[in-house]
Specification:
The strands form 2 sheets. A 5-stranded parallel sheet has the order 3-2-4-1-5, with helices on both faces. It has a 5-stranded mixed sheet with strand order 6-7-10-8-9, with helices on both faces. It starts with 10 loop residues before the first strand and ends with a helix. It has helices spanning about 25-35, 45-55, 70-80, 100-110, 120-130, 145-155, 175-185, 210-215, 245-255, 255-270, 270-280, and strands spanning about 10-15, 40, 60, 85-90, 115, 135-140, 165-170, 190-195, 200-205, 225-230. It contains 11 helices and 10 strands. The protein has 3 domains: about 5-120, Cobalt-precorrin-4 Transmethylase, domain 1 (3-Layer(aba) Sandwich); about 125-230, 2-Layer Sandwich (Methyltransferase, Cobalt-precorrin-4 Transmethylase, Domain 2), CATH 3.30.950; about 240-285. By secondary structure, the chain is an alpha/beta fold. α7 runs antiparallel to α8, α9 runs antiparallel to α10 (about 255-270) and α10 (about 255-270) crosses α11. The longest helix is centred in the N-terminal third of the chain and has 13 residues, at about 70-80. The protein binds S-adenosylmethionine. The site of S-adenosylmethionine (SAM) has 23 residues, from α5, β7 and β10. S-adenosylmethionine binds near residues 193, 195, 196 and 197.
Length: about 290
C-alpha cells in the first residue's frame, strides 16, 4: 500500500464499487478493502462475490435499511477501539440511493473519521455520455412507485431549468416514461441510459415519445438497470401565486398528514384541524 493510501486508525472508508464492469474498481478501493479490519456491506452474499473475485477475505457486517440504526452502535464501538472499516453497497457509491446516510451522519456527530474512496456512480456515468446539459443538474433518485404520487412529484418539477436525473427499475420504466411524456410534453430533450458499463449498455437519446417507442419495441430493451435524464425547462413559467390545494397534495406525498396540514395552515390561514381531516380524506383514511 502506498503512503498516500495508508489507513488511518478509527476511520470508516466509504468505498465505491463497480456498477457493472468489475474493472471499474479503483486500485485504491482494492487496497482499502484488502487492508481494513471489517467491511460493512448492504448484502453480505453480494459483497462476498466481489471479494472472492479480488482474492480478499474479511469479516463482513451487514448494514441495510432495516438494521442501520443498531449497526451504527457497533460501527462506533469498532472505530473507537481504533479499528478501520469500509462501507460498500451492492453497486456504485454508497449513500447514493443506497444505505449509509444515518451511519455517516451519526459518525460525523460523534466526531469520528469518515473518508471517501471515490469511484463510479450511475448518475455521473450516465450524464457524462448523455449529451444533455451537465453544468447544472438535479438528482431526484427513485420516484414514488404509485402512478398518482409519481405524477404529482413530476408536475412539481416541470418548471425546473436544470437537467433532471432519475433512477428507475425495469418493471416501471415504460409507465414512468409515459407519465413523464405527459407532464414534460412531447418536445423535451431526454436520454435514457441502460445497463451502463455492461455488455448491453445502450443510450436512448431523443424526445420522450421517441424513447418510449424504441424501448417498447423490444422486450429485451426493458431489461436491466436504467437512468432517466430530462433536459430542464428552457422557458420556465414565472412563479405565480401558490396553488394551496396542489401544494397540500404534494406535501402529503412526502410528509405525514399532521405536518402537511400544519404547513398549509400556516401559509394559507386555513384551519389546521379541517386541513388534517381533508388530508385523511385525500389519503382515503377518513
Ligand atoms: N449507489 C448506486 C450509484 O452510485 O449509482 C445506485 C444504487 S440504486 C439502489 C440502483 C439504481 O441505480 C438502479 O435501479 C438504476 O436506476 C441505477 N443503476 C445502477 N447501476 C446501473 C447501471 N449499470 N446502468 C444503469 N443504471 C444503473
Amino acid at each position: 500500500m502506498t503512503s498516500a493510501s495508508r489507513l488511518q486508525a478509527g476511520t470508516l472508508y466509504i468505498v465505491a464499487t463497480p456498477i457493472g464492469n468489475l474493472s471499474d474498481l479503483t486500485e485504491r478501493a482494492k487496497q482499502v478493502l484488502a487492508s481494513v479490519d471489517v467491511i460493512a456491506c448492504e448484502d453480505t452474499r453480494h459483497t462476498q462475490k466481489l471479494l472472492q473475485h479480488l482474492g480478499i477475505r474479511k469479516p463482513l457486517l451487514s448494514v441495510h435499511e432495516h438494521n442501520e440504526r443498531e449497526r451504527t452502535e457497533q460501527v462506533i464501538h469498532h472505530l473507537r477501539q481504533g479499528q478501520t472499516m469500509a462501507l460498500v453497497s451492492d453497486a456504485g457509491t454508497p449513500l447514493i440511493s443506497d444505505p449509509g446516510f444515518p451511519l455517516v451522519q451519526a459518525l460525523r456527530s460523534e466526531g469520528l473519521n469518515v473518508s471517501p474512496v471515490p469511484g463510479v456512480s450511475a448518475i455521473i456515468t450516465a450524464l457524462s455520455a448523455a449529451g444533455l446539459p451537465t453544468d447544472r443538474f438535479t438528482f431526484e433518485g427513485f420516484l414514488p412507485h404509485k402512478a398518482g404520487g409519481k405524477r404529482e412529484k413530476l408536475e412539481a418539477q416541470a418548471q425546473e431549468p436544470r437537467t433532471l436525473v432519475y433512477y428507475e427499475a425495469k418493471h416501471r420504466i415504460i409507465e414512468t416514461l409515459q407519465i413523464m411524456a405527459e407532464v414534460f410534453g412531447p418536445e423535451r430533450p431526454a436520454c435514457v441510459a441502460r445497463e451502463l458499463t455492461k455488455t448491453f449498455e445502450t443510450f436512448y437519446p431523443g424526445t420522450l415519445p421517441q424513447i418510449i417507442e424504441q424501448i417498447s419495441a423490444d422486450d429485451d430493451q426493458q431489461k436491466g438497470e436504467f437512468v432517466v435524464m430530462i433536459a430542464g425547462n428552457p422557458d420556465p413559467a414565472p412563479a405565480s401565486e401558490v396553488d394551496m390545494d396542489k401544494l397540500f397534495r404534494l406535501l402529503l406525498v412526502e410528509l405525514p398528514p399532521k405536518k402537511a396540514a400544519a404547513i398549509v395552515a400556516e401559509l394559507s390561514g386555513e384551519n389546521k384541524k379541517a386541513l388534517y381531516q381533508k388530508a385523511l380524506e385525500i389519503q382515503g383514511k377518513a
